[in-house]
Amino acid sequence: MKYRFGLQKGLGLLDLSIAMVIISLIFMAVPNVWTQTTQAKGRISQDLLMLQLEESMHLFLRINGFLPCPDTNGDGHESRNTNGTCKDREGGLPYADFGFSEADAWGNPWYYRVHQRTESSTYINRVCEPTSVFASSGSEDLTDFWLCPETETFYCKSASSASNCDSVCNETCVDNVSAHPTDFQNRPPYYHLSTRPVGTLKVSYGIEIQDANFQPIEEGAIATVISWGENGLGSYALTCSQSDLTTAEQENCDGDTGFVFDEPSRNKDYVLWFDMNQAKNALIQSGRLQ
């Protein structure tokens, strides 16, 4: 009886030891599971924010007829010079203008980059330039903008010809007619359906979106918004040289016109862009054309 009792006691200690090992493994796994769950929730929240941001940008453009400049002083509003140009081509997202969240899912500020010619008074109000999407006041600049009276069709001339009208219009084309109704002249939107680029052509001095292999997937972008992702690393010139940034993250914060879009994960950024086709679609929905 004593032997059997001793055997039972020994089995009890073995069972307890096994149980303790299992409990220890569970406690070791819980933080990892908790971390993974938290990370997954953050990414889901960020995905939703990106969808909401895209819609906010579309809505702003439909209502106002232009996209805002970057925020350079951190107040949530665009920073624009008195002559209508943007104070800088890059900065923070004008979230207050968009009526949007100040920060991404991890509490980090957004980065906002627009076409570089928005800094130029020569181009920002020019109907045939993509920068006219950002024009908010002033007179229309009809340079390179032509009308075929016969068909009542507008064209933006190419650099290699006097007018794109020449080959399609039997009448003499004119270059002093606005495409907008009288009540909408010299006010946004300044751009037109014929504003370059048309279709999938590349935007001059525009923003290029690349895939994970650094191949272009969008060459008609005029604006981009970036969340630096879960690790929060990147703030264009401020921390772009950090050695722990991936090559794609470095490309997104080096201040040039190239940005990398990839499926988000811990070490990847969230990239949203806006192109001329989207802008023209918003213009159609606004009903501000003849």
Tell me about this structure.
This protein has 290 residues and is an alpha+beta fold. It has a domain at 48-137 and 197-286. Helix content is 29%, strand content 14%. The chain is built from 4 helices and 8 strands, in the order αβαβββββαββα. It has helices at 2-64, 95-98, 247-252, 276-286; strands at residues 90-92, 111-114, 145-148, 153-156, 207-210, 216-227, 258-260, 270-275. Strands 1, 2, 5, 6, 7 and 8 form a 6-stranded mixed beta sheet that branches. Strands 3-4 form a two-stranded antiparallel sheet. Helix 1 (2-64) crosses helix 4. The radius of gyration is 28 Å and the shape is elongated.
Summarize the model shown.
With 290 residues, this protein is α+β, with helices and mostly antiparallel strands.
Which features would summarize this protein structure in a list?
290 residues; alpha+beta; 6-stranded mixed beta sheet; two-stranded antiparallel sheet; 8 strands; elongated
SSE map:
Layout (H helix, E strand, L loop, with lengths): L1 H63 L25 E3 L2 H4 L12 E4 L30 E4 L4 E4 L50 E4 L5 E12 L19 H6 L5 E3 L9 E6 H11 L4
Helix pairs in contact: 1-4
Q: Multimeric state of these chains? A: single chain
Which sequence of SSEs, written as H and E, runs from N to C?
A: HEHEEEEEHEEH
Measure the end-to-end span.
104 Å
- Count of DSSP helices? 4
Rg? 28 Å
Low-pLDDT runs of 5+ residues are 1-7, 32-36
β content, as a range?
Answer: 5-15%
Number of strands: 8
